[in-house]
Specification:
80 residues; 72% helix; mainly alpha; single chain
Length: 80
Amino acid sequence: MFELLLRGLSVLAEVVLELIFNYLFYASGWLALRLLTLGRYPRLPLRVSDPMDPRSSWVSAFGFLCVVGLPLTVLVSLYG
């Protein structure tokens, strides 16, 4: 009984974290690309139903690079 409850909670936590990270990375990538291209790209709206579909996954990947890659690069260059 306890194992089933624990497994259900882990699945729920996984889904919630996936949604949060997908929307966080998509929003940050969308904003960074809009700023870099002076509002031309991406032509997708800020709110999408699935940020990991083929049309918008590259925006999420760019957001991941901005949120994770850029700070790590700065830290490594300063303290590495």
